[in-house]
């Protein structure tokens, strides 16, 4: 934002504190508002948008097309017992989303998976910027003389609906449909098979990688979870809903503190700190999910259960009802 617009936005929180009640979706936002402006706020719940199965209009969107193509290639290859599809947003215009660090991690995962002795495979689908912007990011960090083309299946700029379609496509075409359905009971909870494991069967799953330095909430990760796509996020990003080894993998971020400031957004410091140390946790998390399909299946179910139990339209309505009730009570006490 221009400096004057940023000042105006900041002042908007303190101009009429007695007349305006601020609501927030996450504890992170509430802490930031109070620390920066002394503004108290009420926390309310929310729910993610879902791909509309009834209308089916989004089936022709590029997101589903991309997942269908990737799944068809995977089925046709017949070489990978374990297949992990990783979706990620690459948006160079927003440095806090760590676009190059994300690309760097994806590159390492592809390289290390290719070197595995077992029949494993990783496919990467990215979105969030034009192909020209991705090429510019690639040239900036790898050099224009680098002969290696970007190995990602990049879908360019996607509308919100197309992103939802992509997550649905990853879960039903490239991911969850290939997971063992016998390991999940009618209530969506894990039910071990006769051997108490899913090993020995062909396993496939989908992950959403978000290495943003901070997120006010992280709706994209929650929308992925709603479709059974497991988020891999950095500590402090998506922390409102991501619980390590329950519904997600949360990786440490040693180069940054968990509560780093929002004004760092204009500083493209993806490469600060120890590259190996910062990237290693995320690379390790993705490879762990590739090697351990049982863990991936549990997290997939945990992701769906989290949305089902905590982030629903009915829950959102109850949250707002309670918040408005508290406001009315305060008004009655004041006047």
What does this structure look like?
- This protein is of the alpha/beta class.
- The chain has 10 helices and 8 strands.
- The strands form 2 sheets. Strands 5-4-3-6-7-8 form a 6-stranded parallel β-sheet, with helices on both faces. Strands 1-2 form a two-stranded parallel ribbon.
- Strand 6, helix 7 (219-226) and strand 7 (230-234) form a beta-alpha-beta unit.
- Helix 3 (62-77) runs parallel beside helix 6.
- The radius of gyration is 21 Å and the shape is globular.
- The model is unreliable at 58-64, 70-80, 173-202, 254-261 and 263-271 (pLDDT under 50).
Secondary structure elements and pairings:
Blueprint: H1 3-11, E1 22-24, H2 27-37, E2 41-43, H3 62-77, E3 82-89, H4 99-114, E4 120-127, H5 131-142, E5 153-154, H6 160-172, E6 203-210, H7 219-226, E7 230-234, E8 249-251, H8 275-291, H9 293-310, H10 313-334
Parallel strand pairs: 1-2, 3-4, 3-6, 4-5, 6-7, 7-8
């Amino acid at each position: 934002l221009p400096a004057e617009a940023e000042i105006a936005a900041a002042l908007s929180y303190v101009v009429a504190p007695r007349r305006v009640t601020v609501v927030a979706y996450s504890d992170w936002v509430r802490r930031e508002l109070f620390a920066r402006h002394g503004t108290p706020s009420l926390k309310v719940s929310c729910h993610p948008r879902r791909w509309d199965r009834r209308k089916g209009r989004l089936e022709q969107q590029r997101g589903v097309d991309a997942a269908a193509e990737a799944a068809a290639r995977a089925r046709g290859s017949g070489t990978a017992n374990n297949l992990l599809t990783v979706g990620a947003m690459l948006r160079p215009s927003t440095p806090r989303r760590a676009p190059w660090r994300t690309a760097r991690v994806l590159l390492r995962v592809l390289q290390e998976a290719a070197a595995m002795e077992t029949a494993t495979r990783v496919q990467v689908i990215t979105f969030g910027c034009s192909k020209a912007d991705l090429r510019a990011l690639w040239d900036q960090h790898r050099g224009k003389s680098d002969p290696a083309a970007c190995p990602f299946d990049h879908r360019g700029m996607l509308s919100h609906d197309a992103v939802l379609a992509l997550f649905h496509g990853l879960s039903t075409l490239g991911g969850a449909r290939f997971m063992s359905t016998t390991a999940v009971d009618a209530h969506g909870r894990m039910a071990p098979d006769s051997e108490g494991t899913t090993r020995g069967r062909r396993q496939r799953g989908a992950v959403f990688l978000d290495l943003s330095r901070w997120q006010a909430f992280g709706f994209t990760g929650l929308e992925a979870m709603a479709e059974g796509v497991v988020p891999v996020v950095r500590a402090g990003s998506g922390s409102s809903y991501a619980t390590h080894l329950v519904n997600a993998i949360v990786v440490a971020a040693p180069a940054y503190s968990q509560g780093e400031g929002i004004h760092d957004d204009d500083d493209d410091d993806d490469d600060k700190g120890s590259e190996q140390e910062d990237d290693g946790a995320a690379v390790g998390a993705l490879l762990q999910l590739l090697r351990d399909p049982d863990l991936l299946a549990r997290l997939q179910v945990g992701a769906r259960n989290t949305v089902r139990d905590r982030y629903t339209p009915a829950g959102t309505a109850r949250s707002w009802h309670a918040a408005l009730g508290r406001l009315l009570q305060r008004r009655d006490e004041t006047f």
